[in-house]
Amino acid sequence: MGKPRVLVVGTGFAGYHCLRALERALPPDAAELVAVNPTDYMLYVPLLPEVAGGSLDPRRVAVPLRPKLPRTRLVQGSATEVDLGARTCSVVDVEGREQVLGWDRLVLTAGSVTRLLSIPGVAEHAFGFKSVAEAVFLRDHVLRQVELAEQADDPAERAARATFVVVGAGYTGTELVAQGQQLTRSALRGRTGLSEADIRWVLVDTAPRVLPGLDERLAGPAAGVLRGRGVDVRLETSVEEVTPGCARLTDGTEIPTRTVVWCVGVRPDPLVESVAVKTEKGRISVDPTLAVPTHPHVFAAGDVAAVPDVFNGGAPTPMTAQHAQRQGRLAGRNVAASLGHGAVGTYRHRDLGFVVDLAGAQAVANPLHVPLTGLPAKVVARGYHLLAMPGNRLRVAVDWLTDLLVRRQVVQFGLVPQAGVRLSDADRVPVVKQS
Which DSSP symbol is given to 375? Predict the structure, then answer.
């Protein structure tokens, strides 16, 4: 009889740390570890705004899997079909070839995708922001619009190209606006036909404050920094329609623009929608050990899992990297325990606070729920990321130091076509069978 196979679907925060825990907990010959993921790296999503802003090299946020997970076999592809009864998973690789993988233990850590709403034009004309490709494309697109705005003879076209709208004032949207505003400011150096007064950044959200999901004490200072830099913050307002040249808001305002970035939020990977197991708010219901109650050999963690939060009355834990990382570690240890190595544990984690980098010397943070702003918050934010990153720490630190000492490089490569970052791709729905 061969070694049992542990299959982990997805190598984001939860999947990566699950595999790290498995490699540490299991003896070398105890099990075969297999990971399924479209890329050969773990993406450190919290620093994507800095990639879009041009202050970090895209490679800095991509942690290579093979050096970090030497005992794990990586299948580079997307899971398209899971048969829970037969214990198989169908995978389509990067060249479109299909293969079927069997498993003895399955860990679903597929993460999340951009959450689209039924708003006309969003899927066709807005840009998403959840991948390296989207961050690189957006950086190039913003710089291209600045260039074309300076060249435009028509004042209306000039204004539209120099206007950038970000929808969603949560963690990602707030940081993206801050970084984007700094990028366009740097892009104006040496230009005589365009000034800072011509550039307009707009942040839109239905919430009554920025950072609605975080500590209220962070909202006011963050909004103050953005408004102080000239960002037009529109609260309690949403987008009604997006066209190729305009964003129409629910208050009747029409904003001529060629750039609408959709940062409204995320939802669990569509894989969950087809799994014939109990779900809660679109996420797979698991017990405190992260096992699916009706399928004890199936585990789920991270954004796809409704993990009961013992510090919040049993409600599902928030979809944050902080929880995903710790749930991944526990899932790995509990899978190892199910194979006879170690003891089963339950999930208990109290939020340690959040950090929001606002570019330049500005940030807001609440480490251990103590609110900080300005330079102290900036130090905490960068220290937190360096500690949380599973790799590339020295490279990131060097990039940050370089950004302090020399001017930000402003170049566009045009490597990512717009067709490669379509928001409609977020609606793919793999088939998952229940036998």
Answer: H
